[in-house]
Amino acid sequence: MPPISILDIIDIILVAFILYQLYRLIRGTAAITIFMGIFVVYLFWKVVELLQMELISSIMTAVFGGGVIVLIIVFQQEIRRFLLLIGSRYMGGGNYSIERFFSGGSVASRQKQTDIEEIVRAVEWLVDSGYGALIVIARRSSLEMYSEGGEIINARVSAELLKNIFFKDSPLHDGAVLIESGKIYAARCPLPATDNPNLPPRFGMRHRAAIGISELTDCIVIVVSEERGKISLAEFGEIGENIKLNELRKNLSEEII
Q1: 122: domain range?
Q2: Exposure b/e, 17-53, CB count within 10 A at least 16 = b
Q3: Whole-prediction pTM value?
Q4: Which of 117, 183, 174, 198 is nearest to 153 (CA)?
Q5: Lowest mean pLDDT among 36-50, 80-94, 137-151
Q6: Quick check: 89 pLDDT over 60?
Q7: What is the number of structural domains in the chain?
Q8: 20 pLDDT exceeds 50?
Q9: Mapped to the 3 state alphabet, what secondary structure does the chain carry?
Q10: What end-to-end distance do the CA atoms of the chain give, in Å?
């Protein structure tokens, strides 16, 4: 048996990391059930081959011959989320991103810090006032296509404007606000809801829409619950609940490019 080298150890760690990230992406979704079904069929195929049952074996060989293409089609959404995760975390937006390394490690520009403070101030007011909100903040992926059906605003980020948008008597309070490139790009935007069947019943349409848009882009989504007065934060198809204002400020400062 050849000795285990440093490269072998690195190889094992990389494979384990990729498998763990894939598991995180499909955990709690319908994809995990589909994956288990494919795995069972694959085991059955191997048993048939072992027993030399030629007819059924040849049929299953033909089916699994395009296995990679089938897997890409079946798991296209999960693959997309995985690539978004890798691109956002290690090419821009994360604490250890390449973009931050070459920019001297700055967390955010002065203007972006100002925008973050305006958002946090608006969220604090919304919580205190008992109003719900759905705020989508773009990172690298554009949100322009999700503005269809909404109202284009194209104004600088300000707490006062966000308060007026989500005030219960405002014609713009339903739907999401999209923030991109330091501007409130659009309001009253309908978002695609997640099809994850394992979400808790307490999650309403805002939470489902937040998870849905975060599955499709690398955005960060702030949800303010009208019923419970709690803040949630969604990204990459996962959502954290009961976020404090200081946590929100810290997360936005670290994650927005």
Answers
A1: 108-256
A2: eeeeebeebbeebebeeebeebeeeeeebeebeeeee
A3: 0.65
A4: 183
A5: 80-94
A6: no
A7: 1
A8: yes
A9: CCCCCHHHHHHHHHHHHHHHHHHHHHCCCHHHHHHHHHHHHHHHHHHHHHCCCHHHHHHHHHHHHCHHHHHHHHCHHHHHHHHHHHHHHHHCCCCCCHHHHHCCCCCCCHHHHHHHHHHHHHHHHHHHHCCCEEEEECCCCCCHHHHCCCEEEEEECCHHHHHHHHCCCCCCCCCEEEEECCEEEEEEECCCCCCCCCCCCCCCHHHHHHHHHHHHCCCEEEEECCCCCCEEEEECCEEECCCCHHHHHHHHHHHCC
A10: 48
In a domain, 25, yes or no: no
Write down the pLDDT at residue 198: 80
Whether residue 172 is predicted with pLDDT greater than 70 in this model: the reply is yes
What CATH number is associated with residue 204?
3.40.1700.10
In a domain, 86, yes or no: no
What pLDDT score does 26 carry?
60
Distances (CA, A) of 7 to 1, 18, 21, 27, 231: 16, 16, 21, 30, 44
Residue 142 belongs to a domain: yes
Distance CA 210, CA 220 (A): 9
Domain assignment present for 66: no
- pLDDT score, position 110: 77
